[in-house]
Amino acid sequence: MDRLRVAGGVPLLGSVAVSGSKNAALPIMAASILADGPCTLAGLPAVTDVETMAQLLEALGLDVQQTGGNTLCIATVDPCPTTAPYELVQRMRASFCVLGPLLARRGRAVVSLPGGCNIGTRPVDLHLEGLAALGAVIRLDRGYVVAEAPRLRGATIDLRGPMGSTVTGTANVMAAACLAEGTTVIRGAAAEPEIVDLGHFLISAGARIDGLGTDAIEIRGVESLYGTQHRVIPDRIEAGTLLLAAAIATGTVSVEGARADHLTSVLEALAEAGVDVARGDDRITVHASDGPKAIDVIARPYPGIPTDLQAQFMALLSLADGSSTICDDVFPKRFLHAAELRRLGARIEQRAGTARVDGVYRLSGAKVVATDLRSGAALVLAGLAARGETIVGGLEHLDRGYDDLAAKLAALGANIQRESPALDAASALDSTTGIIPLRARSASEGLGVTTPKTLARASG
Ligand code: UD1
Question: Per-residue pLDDT for 442 more than 80?
């Protein structure tokens, strides 16, 4: 099991480039199922969730070729299976984004109920209600959703649940509605930049969509979509994580390619916490010389502070001068990281959906384990500021969504190393046998899309 070894107390300095957005990439890759021709997607992040989606698309009969460092070309080939297998879907909740496209394009979709990050109950009822409103007949069969419709029909659908809209639910219904007969109106649609990016991809493939970025999206169905080319937007969560890293470790860091317009409430919160923030044309720069001030944070749907940055804010506020409160209106029970932050000396109390964080003068290094993707990032950030050494395990979570976070932080001067005990043991063995070991995938080497099929083609 890989782990990160972080020696805290080093200020960060320099520039780092943001990768493409994971949460935009995944539904866009899934929506490639809708197109008759090949879709070339550029700027994809080298994260294991992208690999998983590529494997899932191959299992669904698509041809996935890596045509550049961060570019995939995805094309439908015959035959066209309609079953998304449990083994792949349970690895990542966003796999469920193939449901709408499969149903709309192939008339039938059999998709395992999803797995993914351990951040509380995550239902899919709104996805299913939305697709049913488009005329799909849906049943559950031994852990699989079976959805069928010879041709979907446009309808007016409300995707607001008890916690607001659903991001991937909006992706599923919007993608499916592109090939429906007639007009679909999604009320209570998610306005997240990743949904806008999916919409732009679909429009470039011939879809007719209005209202992107608002809570009412109108889709006029077309007979078919064609192949297209698209570059995914920069990852606002990765950018926010890097900015928060500079805030907690202190120093001056520019995140190149980051979009300030996607991070308005995050930048406002950082400024409120006493961090200097400068918005450039194609970069955001932060400067922090002291510990942060206490602030209250409420994670909300866009344009609020994203729930995917709530854990990283908790790490920062653990060192604040004073007491902060943190609520998560999207996933109210998403506080598993609090227990691990406490191991580093943070003082966090949870009561009825609110975490109260009493800032401490310093954190101390310890062994901790990531419980989900963003908690992993929060622990790394806390390690950057802690006295002594922090060892972060559970890196499989971090790898799902961060494109080599450790290398990016190291490039900014952080004292952080990735260790692969299993690999080190294998190397020692190989020096005696002469067999060259498989190397761990480094995200900087590309997308790592090496499904058996892709490998076979490459070697054949
Ligand atoms: C997406 C993001 C994830 C982010 C989340 C919230 C991707 C791949 N993942 O997840 O990183 O944390 O948005 O910004 O883009 N809900 C229902 N019924 C449903 C679906 C959701 O009640 O059918 C509820 C959820 O329990 C939650 C809220 O709606 O309280 C938002 O969830 P949702 O937007 O669906 O999250 P995801 O799309 O899974």
Answer: no
Same domain, 216 and 247: no
Q: Based on the residue annotation, tell me whether 117 is a catalytic residue of this protein.
A: yes
* CA gap 91, 87 in Å, rounded: 7
CB of 128 closer than 8 Å to CB of 96: no
What average pLDDT is seen over the chain? 91
Model confidence band, residue 434 (pLDDT cutoffs 50, 70, 90): very low
**Given 39, 73, 97, 117, which residue is catalytic?**
117
- Ligand 1: which atom is nearest the Cα of residue 27? 8
Of 216, 231, 246, the domain-final residue: 231
The answer to whether residue 116 scores a pLDDT higher than 80 is no
CA 399 from chain centre, in angstroms, equals 11
One domain, residues 31 and 69: yes
Which pLDDT does position 459 carry in this prediction?
A: 28
User: Residues lining ligand 1, judged by CB closer than 6 Å?
Assistant: 23, 26, 93-94, 122-127, 161-163, 166-169, 194, 306-308, 330-331
List the domain range (segments joined by +) for residue 251.
3-18+234-442
What domain count does the chain have?
2
The average pLDDT across 256-278 equals: 98
Question: Residues 193, 284: one domain?
Answer: no
Residue 11 to residue 160: CA distance in whole angstroms = 43
Nearest to 354 by CA among 377, 329, 326, 334: 326
Kindly indicate the confidence band of residue 425, based on its pLDDT and cuts at 50, 70 and 90.
low
